[in-house]
Amino acid sequence: MKRLLLFAMMCVCMSFVFGQKKGDKVVKVTSSEIRWWGYKVVKTVPTTHSGTVKLKSGKFTFDKTVLIDGEFVIDMKSIMAGDVSSQDEDMVKLTNDLKSSNFFDVKKFPLAKFHLTKIIPLANSEYNSTVYGDVTIKGVRKTITFPANVYITQFTVVIESAKFSLNRRDFKVFYQSSLKDYFIKNEMDIQFKISTEKLDNENRTPVKKKK
């Protein structure tokens, strides 16, 4: 009798959980831009490298009009040093190095992920929110936080992050056996802009839809 009662209670709980999820609304990211920076130990403009990486997919989940979380998949095979249109020989070499097993090993780990877990509003700050989430790179997951300007209207979401740092060694992004690694700072910076609508290139606000 006790087992039957326990089973019935479990069924009720599961029905309640899945019943909540049925009402969730999922909104896809349609506009994104991700930039990265890496530095030599002597951090100057000539010793700083930067580039881009592309978002493969992204979505936000809502319960009615309340944002619950976000899931984002980054295409690590798209990582590039320098400008997208640049054919500079050094940048091509660096791009290939970043994709190799020396760094991100994109053949083995083609995707990185970020799971947004919560957004806490900030007052009297350059950025209006603190974003919390879990980032997974090369199979290693770490919880991170960073400042951002977040704008949510109905089911439209715009997030513009500050430039924030990750420790590459936390994710095993380093030369396995080379003195070269000692000349590279462990700090790597990331900054991104994502939106559920197309963004205006100049002011980064959603483009108004034509009526």
Kindly name the structural category. Answer: alpha+beta
CATH topology: Lipocalin
Which parts are unreliable, with pLDDT below 50 for 5 consecutive residues or more? 2-23
Q: Compute the gyration radius: what is it?
A: 21 Å
Structural features, described:
The protein has one domain: Lipocalin (Beta Barrel), CATH 2.40.128. Helix content is 15%, strand content 49%. It is built from two helices and ten strands; from the N terminus they run αββββαββββββ. A hairpin with a 2-residue loop joins β3 (48-63) and β4 (66-81). Residues 24-197 form the Lipid/polyisoprenoid-binding YceI-like domain. It comes from Chryseobacterium takakiae. Pfam families: YceI (PF04264). Residues 1-19 form the signal peptide.
Q: Concise description?
A:
The chain has one domain (24-195): Lipocalin (Beta Barrel), CATH 2.40.128.110. Helices cover 15% and strands 49% of the residues. The protein contains two helices and ten strands.
Which terms would index this structure?
TTHA0802/YceI-like_sf, eight-stranded antiparallel barrel, disordered N terminus, Lipid/polyisoprenoid-bd_YceI, 211 residues, Polyisoprenoid-binding protein YceI, signal
How is the secondary structure organized here?
Blueprint (H helix, E strand, L loop, with lengths): L1 H21 L1 E5 L2 E10 L7 E16 L2 E16 L7 H11 L11 E11 L7 E9 L2 E14 L2 E6 L2 E4 L16 E12 L16
Antiparallel strand pairs: 1-3, 2-3, 2-10, 3-4, 4-5, 5-6, 6-7, 7-8, 8-10, 9-10
